[in-house]
Write a structure and sequence with these properties.
The chain has 2 domains: 162 residues, no CATH class; 109 residues, Sandwich (Immunoglobulin-like), CATH 2.60.40. Helices cover 11% and strands 41% of the residues. Strands 1, 2, 3, 4, 5, 8, 9 and 21 form an 8-stranded mixed beta sheet that branches. Strand 2 and strand 3 form a beta hairpin.
Length: 296
């Protein structure tokens, strides 16, 4: 499923922060990179895996992606530094001519630990810092129901665990289906209203319902007896705000970039990278659940 993240967010560089790179890799090759080029870094970190990348693109984020292909910066060097765990560098992996990622499968950061993602490309350096959330087991039970009076996913949350969380970022995936367009946010934080989508609502203090009609907007259509998968990420408050802003950019009024290219204004999205880079460095713990849709 992580591979599909790169396919879905072509205008981003996806980093999942768990990697180690040797100091000998800190050399970068000369590259033609204009100093006013928009550099985008998107980073994700969870226990046991890190994936990363960096791109340059004059339009960020692209709405009409076929006309908005990013250029991968293959010479980037990326490392992670935990205040207690030390430094880890990400290995460069060339997946194809158009896709280079950086990853490591061995790093592990502690809950509450401050972690910095460092990115180096020719003539530039960027960094972003976040705090690793605690490893929580928030979902007690779940049930996806198709019913003539109301359908959707019902989440039963562990009250103690959920109160420790800033919020959950949940992807609902159907077997053999493409990655959903956006994920749902389960949080008590006050998020701005969107006319394009509805994350769901608490029907009781620790019971959250995501309507089936909203799940279908993400490109996932479920029927009785279908198998579905949940990728549940315990995220930071900053990540929750970023995901909400990203989702808003998908349905906001795009700007015309010429030649049929449409993009959302970059100032609509928050970033925690310095020196003018876009994108975001996410730290999260995650759990995976599987269920079967039932008809009632």
């Amino acid at each position: 499923m992580t591979t599909n993240i790169f396919m879905r967010w072509k205008t981003f560089v996806s980093l999942i922060a768990m990697g180690s790179l040797l100091s000998s890799c800190l050399e970068t090759n000369p590259a033609d990179l204009e100093l006013d080029t928009i550099v985008t870094i998107e980073s994700f970190s969870s226990p046991g895996l890190t994936k990363a990348g960096v791109i340059e693109n004059p339009f960020y984020p692209c709405v009409n992606t076929p006309n908005c292909e990013p250029k991968v910066i293959q010479s980037a060097v990326m490392s992670l530094t935990g205040e207690r765990s030390g430094e880890f560098v990400l290995d460069r992996i060339i997946v194809s001519e158009d896709l280079t990622i950086f990853q490591n499968e061995f790093t592990h950061f502690l809950g509450g630990e401050e972690v910095t993602m460092n990115v180096r490309i020719p003539n530039r350096k960027y960094a972003a810092t976040s705090t690793m959330p605690e490893n929580l087991d928030v979902i007690e039970k779940m049930d996806y129901i198709i019913d003539s009076t109301g359908s959707g996913l019902v989440l039963f949350l562990d009250s103690t665990e959920f109160e420790k969380s800033a919020g959950l970022h949940i992807l609902i995936v159907k077997d053999q289906a493409p990655e959903p367009i956006y994920g749902f946010l389960v949080t008590r934080a006050q998020l701005s209203f969107s006319e394009c989508f509805f994350y769901g609502a608490f029907v009781e203090p620790y019971i959250f319902v995501i309507p089936d009609e909203e799940v279908r907007k993400t490109g996932v259509e479920l029927s009785p007896d279908d198998v579905y998968y949940l990728d549940i990420r315990n995220s930071t408050p900053e990540s929750i705000e970023y995901y909400h802003a990203y989702n808003q950019s998908l349905c906001g009024e795009p700007m015309d970039g010429g030649n049929g290219t449409e993009f959302a204004p970059p100032e609509n999205l928050p970033t925690n990278f310095n020196n003018g880079a876009f994108g975001f460095f996410h730290l999260f713990t995650q759990e995976h659940e599987t269920g079967i849709v039932r008809k009632r």
